[in-house]
């Protein structure tokens, strides 16, 4: 990215966050009245890359996460793993340089957690930078690099 964020305006900073950083939350944060497809498209309402057909990209991303047959379903009609996959597709819609994931497997069973982490591994192999927060040693085992924080300080590894 190579941008000095200390010298840009609030609106430029918001645009940078919207286009360059994808967020995956522990609790999914999907809008219950919207379909999976509409949830994936949500970030494009505030920020979007002009050279991208966002509808086509959203459908492609839902296919990538294995939900091409659930695009028109609302979050209440999806399992926890499916909801997290929608959240991951939403995080990827603007082709961010970085994905921030806060306990992305925290609300999932062990089988679904493995599936989500394998998806993250594939995204990483394809060039995505993923910064993940987790307390789970099995989840952190997927990382190429780990940093341990205790009481607000980085521990020596």
TrEMBL record:
GO CC terms: plasma membrane
The entry's keywords: Lipoprotein, Transport
InterPro entries, alphabetized: ABC_transporter-like_ATP-bd, ABC_transporter-like_CS, ABC_transpr_LolD-like, MacB-like_ATP-bd, P-loop_NTPase
Highest taxon above the source species: Archaea
Protein name: ABC-type lipoprotein export system ATPase subunit
Gene3D superfamilies named among the record's database cross-references: P-loop containing nucleotide triphosphate hydrolases (3.40.50.300)
Xref: Pfam families: ABC_tran
Residue span(s) of domain ABC transporter: 1-157
CDD domains for this protein: ABC_MJ0796_LolCDE_FtsE
A GO MF term: ATP hydrolysis activity
Source organism of this protein record: Methanococcoides alaskense
PANTHER family the record matches: ABC TRANSPORTER ABCH.1, IMPORT ATP-BINDING PROTEIN
Keyword flag Transport: yes
């Amino acid at each position: 990215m190579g941008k000095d964020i200390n010298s840009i305006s609030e609106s430029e900073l918001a645009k940078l966050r919207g286009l360059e950083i994808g967020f995956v939350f522990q609790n999914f944060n999907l809008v219950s009245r919207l379909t999976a497809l509409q949830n994936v498209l949500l970030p494009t309402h505030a920020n979007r890359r002009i050279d991208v057909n966002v509808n086509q990209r959203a459908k492609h991303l839902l296919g990538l996460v294995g939900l091409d047959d659930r695009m028109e379903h609302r979050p209440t009609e999806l399992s926890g793993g499916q909801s997290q996959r929608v959240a991951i597709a939403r995080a990827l819609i603007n082709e961010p340089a970085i994905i921030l994931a806060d306990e992305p497997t925290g609300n999932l069973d062990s089988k679904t957690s493995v599936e989500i982490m394998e998806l993250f591994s594939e995204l990483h192999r394809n060039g995505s930078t993923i910064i993940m927060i987790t307390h789970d040693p099995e989840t952190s085992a997927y990382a190429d690099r780990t940093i341990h924080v205790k009481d607000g300080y980085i521990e020596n590894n």
